[in-house]
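Please fill in the sequence for the structure shown.

STRUCTURE ENCODING:
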């Protein structure tokens, strides 16, 4: 990859190829990888909600629109590739922050150990024998009334 970029740069073709390559990357990222964000943005707009997904898509589409303008009317001073790069950066940042948020939520959620041998105790509320006696949950039958101890 680096050798290919070096050859393009030495031949002077990198300035003509890079806007197309970055544009393809932007389209793949916005409409492919981040399609779920686009779907959430459309749903939010239907409800009249302006949230981060809508703002992300507005920024991504603005970058794509600026890049397409640069491809249609090429000019040496117009930053076509940079417009597409904005779309790539904004979508990548949002996907990364969403992934990081899921990791934090997963690690901070309380986990219950399934390997503990003892079950939670329960107190029987009614019954003929030993009213209020504490028993393991495994001994509480179906239909009996009980409350779990905290």
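FILLED IN BY: designer on duty
SEQUENCE:
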């Amino acid at each position: 990859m680096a050798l290919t970029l070096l050859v393009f740069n030495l031949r002077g073709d990198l300035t003509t190829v890079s806007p197309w390559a970055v544009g393809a990357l932007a389209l793949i990222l916005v409409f492919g990888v981040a399609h779920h964000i686009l779907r959430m943005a459309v749903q939010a707009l239907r409800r009249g909600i302006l949230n981060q997904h809508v703002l992300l898509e507005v920024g991504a589409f603005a970058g794509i629109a600026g890049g397409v303008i640069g491809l249609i009317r090429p000019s040496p001073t117009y930053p076509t590739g940079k417009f597409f790069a904005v779309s790539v950066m904004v979508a990548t940042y949002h996907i990364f922050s969403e992934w990081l948020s899921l990791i934090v939520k997963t690690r901070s959620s309380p986990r219950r150990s399934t390997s503990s041998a003892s079950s939670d105790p329960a107190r029987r509320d009614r019954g003929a024998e030993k009213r209020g006696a504490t028993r393991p949950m495994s001994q509480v039958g179906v239909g009996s009334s009980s409350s779990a101890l905290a």
